[in-house]
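Q: What residues go here?
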């Protein structure tokens, strides 16, 4: 499948996912990987400022929502992934600890769906069976300090503390599949065959950016 051409824009947030080579687990304990991840984010921000809206680190990949006021997602991602990979290699004494291929991205330009993408990302550890709630998982942007938030320019559209019940409400299996497919498009897009009730459910979030 040909690689999709990068769309540089500043109006809407991107969802980004990057996996390790061969989907191998990170070669260090997760608490250490999380510290290195934050260090890489701080470094990348010093080179190319973006807004980090949401971040979830898993055992062999990460999800991120970010906004690029200067239309430079490629530059930021190059600095971040390169630094993260270098730090992982240095601290694990492994050569060429790299991420597989390029990062995958999707622009979430339908405002009514963004809240559900946040919810989908924060529930990743629950679906993986390693946490019982979003708030229990320590390796996401829900657990960064106010000081770290300033350093990485963390600017969420929605605040978990204000809407905990919503974020913890589980998705059904069909809805998860619909979201996964939608995030594979250059612009978040529900399939034409998506049932009307699912479209209505996912379009429920109509308060984008009120908390920014």
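A:
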């Amino acid at each position: 499948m040909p690689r999709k051409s990068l769309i540089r824009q500043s109006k809407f947030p991107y969802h980004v996912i990057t996996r390790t080579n061969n989907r191998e687990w990170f070669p260090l304990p997760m608490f250490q990987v999380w510290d290195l991840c934050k260090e890489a984010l701080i470094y990348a921000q010093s080179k190319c400022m973006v807004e980090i809206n949401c971040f979830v680190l898993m055992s062999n990949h990460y999800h991120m929502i970010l906004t690029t006021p200067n239309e430079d997602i490629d530059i930021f991602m190059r600095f971040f992934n390169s630094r993260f990979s270098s730090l992982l290699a240095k601290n694990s004494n492994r050569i060429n600890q790299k991420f597989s291929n390029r990062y995958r991205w999707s622009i979430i330009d339908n405002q009514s769906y963004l809240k559900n993408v946040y919810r989908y990302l924060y529930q990743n550890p629950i679906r993986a069976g390693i946490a019982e709630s979003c708030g229990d998982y320590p390796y996401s942007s829900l657990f960064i300090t106010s000081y770290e938030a300033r350093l990485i320019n963390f600017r969420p559209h929605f605040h978990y503390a204000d809407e905990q019940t919503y974020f913890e409400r589980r998705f059904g299996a069909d809805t998860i599949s619909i979201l996964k497919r939608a995030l594979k498009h250059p612009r978040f897009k529900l399939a034409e065959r998506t049932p009307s009730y699912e479209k209505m459910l996912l379009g429920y979030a109509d308060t984008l950016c009120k908390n920014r």
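A: Context that may help when evaluating the design: The domain at 14-202 is CATH 3.30.70.1290 (Alpha-Beta Plaits). The radius of gyration is 17 Å.
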